[in-house]
């Protein structure tokens, strides 16, 4: 998450991952002030008209928080409260409004009753982050990976014409230059690794090309073998591959896969170290017994009435230094988790 300190009590915040959204869900409190852009239908009197006109406008509103919930997914928050300030004269203070805060939504947070715990926020900003390029002779997919968040940026087509193309060198150079331009515009400066995957010699050629470009001085360029596809399909294949897990042992996806294997082994052995019931997980988390929690990003869509229990579980696990893994249902580990209910905990010790 990007944080710009404005004072001891205020900050400009941009959440970038599901983990950021969880932290904000627990961090933003009742009576805090939150300011963000929003769309609202406003009424106004128009000359020579008998009736008030209505118009949807994008305005900046500041609300005093009375309620904060997830909006059906862990990737979006709903913040409700009374309007304290507005950028539009037709919107009245004191009326109620709900702000929607999603990934990459910029907003202002002001805590009037206490200071912002910047150490807590910045501690949770440390996540593995890298750029992944999956290419073959036809298409290159570029994605950004940070924590549990996989952002598919774009696909670049090579316009490869085989033997009709004048020279192989001209085709490859043009292809690589398009990829380089997109990487330059996509890299924010915090990613220090670019991972290239895909079949054929074009993968090694791109690595050599990038190492001799301005990007090569800022980032480590790596390649991974065994990926058969380019484009977004190649990215998905890469993050699910054993080779990716070997190279990036500390990566989020590798750690989540390891926890999933422990859970499945525990269920097979019936040793009591794996729990699938929300009630049992909540009880275990109260004692600090939950070491890891796996949950799909869209779990709330199927279990909306369980939000308060789930949030309490999150709070307990973080309180006792446990780890929460939000899984995309498009990953192999996410698919496995869905087959056993979409949520599972692995315990430090048996409690029953």
Summarize the structure.
The protein has 352 residues and is α+β, with helices and mostly antiparallel strands. It contains 11 helices and 16 strands.
Written description of the protein model:
This protein has 352 residues and is of the alpha+beta class. The protein has three domains: 122 residues, Roll (SH3 type barrels); 119 residues, eRF1 domain 2 (Nucleotidyltransferase, domain 5), CATH 3.30.420.60; 96 residues, Ribosomal protein L30/S12 (60s Ribosomal Protein L30, Chain: A). The protein is 32% helix and 32% strand. It has eleven helices and 16 strands. The protein has a seven-stranded antiparallel β-sheet with strand order 1-2-7-3-4-5-6. A five-stranded mixed β-sheet has the order 10-9-8-11-12. Helix 8 packs parallel to helix 10. The chain is globular. The two termini are 38 Å apart.
